Structures are given as C-alpha cells and as structure tokens.
Description:
Blueprint: E1 5-10, H1 13-21, E2 30-33, E3 41-44, H2 46-49, H3 59-65, E4 70-72, H4 76-90, E5 97-101, E6 104-108, H5 113-116, H6 119-134, E7 138-143, H7 146-156, E8 161-163, H8 169-173, H9 186-194, H10 200-204, H11 208-215, H12 217-226, E9 243-254, H13 257-278, E10 280-291, E11 296-307, H14 310-322, E12 330-338, E13 341-342, H15 354-367
Parallel strand pairs: 2-4, 7-8
Antiparallel strand pairs: 1-6, 1-7, 2-3, 5-6, 9-12, 10-11, 10-12, 10-13
Helix pairs in contact: 4-6, 11-12, 13-14
Amino acid sequence: MERWVLHVDMDAFYASVEQLDNPSLKGRPVIVGGLGPRGVVATASYQARAYGVHSAMPMARARRLCPHGVFLPPRFARYQELSSRIQAILREYTPLVEPISLDEAFLDLTGTQRARGSPEQVAREIHTRIPREVGLPCSVGLGPSKLLAKLASDSAKPGGLRVIKPEDVIAFMSPLPVERLWGIGPKTAQRLTQQGIRTVQDLRGVDVALLSSWFGPKVGTHLWRLARGLDDSPVIPVREAKSFSQEVTYPEDLYDQEVIRAEVRRLAHMVAGRLKEEGFLARVVRIKVRWEDFVTNTRQLRLPEATDNVVLLSEAAVELLSRLETGRGVRLVGVGVAGLVPASFRPLHLFLDERLSEAAWRLRARFGEAALMWGWGPSPPGKGSAPGRPPQAPGG
C-alpha cells in the first residue's frame, strides 16, 4: 500500500492570531515575543520578515530592523485554544495525528482513501477548511513520508499546497541545500560544505562508506537515506499525558517575594486548568526556579490524594517555594503536576469547600483567563509585564 503523510503548518501562527483578533493589524509587521531587554522573537508576520526579522532573534535587534513594527507579548492561552480547534479538524480525517507544536502537525493518510477520499483530495479540503473555519492561513504538504511532507509544506509557504508524488521525489529534492534536510544542523552542513557538498544532489553522489568514515556509520547511513528521500519514521499520535507543566522566563529578574508567590499561584492555576480540560487528577506537584545566576532548583511533593482543585494545587506549589532559599533574583518559575489519573472519581476534601474551586473555573470560563488572578493587585512584576501574562482584572 502506498504511504501518504500530510504536514500542516500554520503560517506565522502567533502573529496571524493577533491579526485575526485585531483586524487593524492585518498587512502590518507584527512581532510577537518577550518585550523586555532579554526578550526574543517568538513569531514574526511575513510583513516583518521582509525587514529581516525572524524567530529566535533578540527582540532588541528586531526593534532596530523594524522600528515601526507592532510588538506584542504572546497570549498562549489563545494560541492553545485555536490550536485545539485546528487539531479537532485534522482528527476528523485520521486518528493518526502527531502534533509537533501548537502550529504544526503530521497526519498519516495511508489507507484512508475509502473513508475520506484520495490523499490529494483530503489535502485540498484541509487547506481550505482551516482558513474558512478558524480564520488562519496555513501551508500544507503531502508526500510519501514525514520528511517529504515537511519539505513540501516548506516549499508551499506562505499559504500554499504542495504534493510530492513518489516519482517526483528525486527531481524535487536534488536542488535543495543540504541544511533543509532533517537532522542536518549547522555543524554537519559546514562539514559537508568543506567537502564540496552543498545540495541534496551533491550528497546523493557520495558513497555511504565515505559518509560513514566522516560521520560514523549511524549518521553516515542516515545521511545517505535522506539524500534519497528515504524516511520510514512513523506518525505517532499523542500519547496519554504523564505530566503537565507551565513555566515563564521573565524579561527582568523578580525579587519581590509576594510577586514570586503570586506567579507560582498563577502558573498553578494554569496547570490546574489543563488537568480539568484534559480530564485528569494529579498526585504530585512540582516547582522549578531558575535564579539570576542560572542555577536551577526543583522541588516536588506527593499529595494525600489526587486532585485538580486549584486551591490545593496552588497552595502546594507555594509550600514548595517556601522550601527554597530566598534573596536571589528569579529568572524563571515553573509549576508542574505528575502522577496523573483519569478524573473518573473526584474525592471530596474534608477541610476545603469545593465551591471555591468551581467558582474560579466558572469565572475563567465566562470572562477568560484574566478574570481571576492570585496574589498581587494590578501592578505587574518589575518594570514590565511577564511574557504571556494576561491583563489583570480589577480586584483580582
């Protein structure tokens, strides 16, 4: 049976979401990322990329390249919401959906023709449905492997559709630079360039024994296969979650202990939300703190019983924080849970009114993530808001 893999890649996802939610930003250079002095670009719209701005670039450099750009902090809850809608569309076509990140996923369409139509038909349908139903542009690639599907979607950007049939693989791949292939990073590409190998066609002309002598038998064989478009890696659907976590790196170090505790509670609230949305209870709570000197400490505790109660999880995380020394600036805070069990039975807590937790979820569902915050009032930490921090609701 002929194998077909689809790759869906949302174009400039974070920036596109901001343009969707604020139509006045359409056609303008939008740059999303950390806005502080240590911030980096998460996503840049194609209008901003025309000025040389790209992901992982220091935000300070992005401001110099595109001083008239619109610079925004990320809103991860909103991105997750739209990503879930996109993935729900994809799962209508096959259960074999492997999300790589919020903005891209692989689908294995092998053997789905009888139920859903030909792979090309499915590719066209998905390419049309996502912009129509979600309002966001996407690029779609279809090929006989994950490698080819990814290369196809890359070549279709922005907003296009590309199908690579088995008989077209060699012609399509030959002119590509070697660094476009998965597993070939800057160092490997540099070593290949030193040997006069710059394109996939050049790489295909090198004997596997010679490649193995340069890189070792495992890597050499892998490169030899890549040059021929050979990739049998499976599409692996999302496995059952074993843990959830949420962490933030701050644009400026946090020193105020009340602010730090409030951030721990805020992150615990977000993790509790994941538990509730996914239908799990947690037995273990963890925190992670990275100090100003980049030393990282972690602590965890096992709860008496599994829970998704936002109050219990928040207070457990703050208790863990109290076990760490204080006085140093905090660069990163993370809260996580583990020991997950299905929420088929939710224990009642003897000394805690469940109505408080339920009220928190109702507020969050009705008014959004910013409707309820823990700890400090409306002033953000330090001189600027933490990355991804939603606006504080009055009286939160």
